[in-house]
Design a protein that fits this description.
Two copies of one chain form a homodimer.
Chain A (H helix, E strand, L loop, with lengths): L2 H14 L4 H16 L10 H9 L10 E4 L4 E5 L5 H19 L1 E9 L5 H10 L3 E6 L20 E5 L6 E5 L6 H10 L8 E2 L9 H6 L1 E2 L5 H16 L22 E8 L2 H4 L2 H14 L15 H10 L8 H10 L2
Parallel strand pairs in A: 2-3
Antiparallel strand pairs in A: 1-2, 3-9, 4-5, 4-9, 5-6, 7-8
């Protein structure tokens, strides 16, 4: 489907579900961005879920989002149970403003929901010549090291820095493989790798169905578990949001709002070394790229480089939508 | 050896090597702290190296450490090639001061050296009721994902938060196993696990000697590699220090100062939710500890908990010193 047409349809759907014009525009843009990036698990596949949650009154289509100024650097946002895109979009713009003023910005968001990819927001900060951390919690999917039951979300760590070219953006979950990969394996009847998930009884399983009912494992044992715990503290405890496994699954749990938390930290990378920062970044990347390659590699990519290429490759292409989702969209727009 | 006696001897040695009384005291305290924590690779085993580097004029025993105020939150420290302990001790105290004043502190240190464990500094911030990140670079030991040669250091990520009890302190390298573990395997003639290191030719090796000449691998492939790269940017590029594999090995490379960089970010955890922070942290930890345990586990520990127990267990014990190091100390004190 042509992007313009898709955007029109999405806006219509969001307007039918009582969003304001402005918020419908924001949500449509982020969903399309996910599709362009081939991050389909964060794109149109979630449209029906957002609408269902609005109907069930666990997402507020007309949120009154409040920004409380804590200091020139810090702001605290009550998202009023908005779709995550909306509060995170406001939040990152505030974090950018704060860092431009003081050198460092800190924005916490509470009462939010799933916001797509952390890199959406990191990229905006980097395009404003800032370094950035984005943290968000997520529904329980990972067993803490030593436990056999899910508690942490896949809790991504996201860090961005300007390079003068494609942004350096590290954005990766603390789970060994993505939940989407397990879901795909289930659909296609494939096995998942050994050691990435446990079944309900706490035993390692390579059966995707069992894994989805059980729990995923964090990267590198106690190291990944500790990183996921850190993200739970930063995005959950510190922001006054859900934590300790209390974030509701947006697809399965309609008993109340998700109460997700996000934290953005923005830093002016020039505060210590001025304009040398970008020059040194370029030197750094050049050195790494020149290293002798491991077997099977012809090139070393920095984090974010591949995603940037995907974006450029797809930017002027139409978006392919599965018949199932096309049908969902028709129904939602009826 | 009794701790008092050991401290006296260490101070004598540092004074003989031209450190001021104050700096000799700081360095002795951190070395003893490493021993109490059973982190022997950061303790007395490094004493001779520090002294050798002073003699070789690649550590400055009388550094003029300058603190430049960038803003109320940010400070930039030129360590003047001090022993890392000294500048990091000044740096974390400044970061604590800044966060107490403004809610957030950011301290970059350049021209520094090996500073022991990141948790030394994180703990001080947490004891001052702050959250904290500590980043430091290190000599090349890890191959970036896709390369077969070392470039990143073992680049630890360190995060701390107050709990009202033992501090939550995550402090782990981005390598699969510690370099010390490989060194021990070499000494004892043991094999190292498959998949943690490459030999000089870029092939996986389980031979410790070959691994030390080759390169270690990061945790979780591109994920750990990206995290190590992030630490290189934060502690190296951003602080105006060595990066991209240029940090000199303190034991092997006397061609110049290490020019290591450190970055401390301190945050008042109460700025958004006030006194509820510690209560919620305790709830969070309680929930995790109550989870059903995986096979082989009777307890789930949070990051920092084990280290805290070790510290308490050893605090009133004498410190055992190997004959080799005792001899080194005698010579250095001669």
């Amino acid at each position: 489907m042509k992007k313009n047409l898709l955007k029109l349809k999405l806006k219509q759907i969001f307007l039918k579900h009582k969003l304001s014009k402005k918020h419908a525009e924001i949500c449509s843009n982020y969903l399309i961005k996910a599709e362009i990036l081939e991050a389909k698990g964060h794109g149109l596949a979630r449209l029906k879920m957002y609408c269902d949650r609005i109907k069930a009154k666990v997402i507020n289509p007309k949120p009154e989002i409040k920004i409380k100024k804590i200091s020139s650097s810090a702001s605290y946002i009550d998202a009023d149970n908005s779709i995550g895109f909306i509060s995170a979009d406001i939040g990152i713009k505030q974090a950018i403003k704060n860092a431009k003023k003081t050198g460092i910005g800190l924005v916490a968001i509470k009462k939010s929901g799933h916001y797509g990819l952390s890199s959406f927001y990191a990229e905006q900060a980097v395009n404003n010549k800032l370094m950035v951390f984005c943290f968000t919690n997520a529904p329980a999917a990972l067993a803490p090291h030593g436990a056999k039951k899910s508690l942490f979300g896949t809790n991504p760590i996201c860090f961005g820095a300007p390079t003068g070219k494609a942004p350096f953006i590290y954005d990766a979950s603390t789970s060994i493989i993505n939940r989407g990969t397990i879901r795909r394996a289930e659909r296609l009847g494939l096995k998942i790798p050994y050691g990435v998930a446990l079944n309900k009884k706490g035993k390692i399983t390579t059966n995707a169905k069992e894994a989805l009912k059980g729990t995923q494992l964090p990267i590198a044992g106690f190291k990944g578990s500790g990183l996921a715990w850190m993200v739970d503290i930063l995005s959950g405890v510190f922001t006054g949001s859900s934590h300790g496994g209390k974030t509701k699954d947006p697809f399965d749990d309609f008993s109340g709002p998700q109460n997700m938390g996000h934290l953005f930290i923005t830093i002016n990378p020039k505060i210590f070394i001025g304009n040398k920062f970008v020059k040194e970044m370029q030197k750094n990347i050049k050195i790494v790229k020149k290293l002798p390659k491991a077997k099977g590699f012809t090139n070393i990519l920095y984090p974010g480089e591949r995603k940037n290429k995907t974006y450029k490759k797809n930017l002027n292409k139409d978006i392919s939508i599965s018949p199932k989702i096309l049908k969902e969209m028709e129904k939602l727009n009826a």
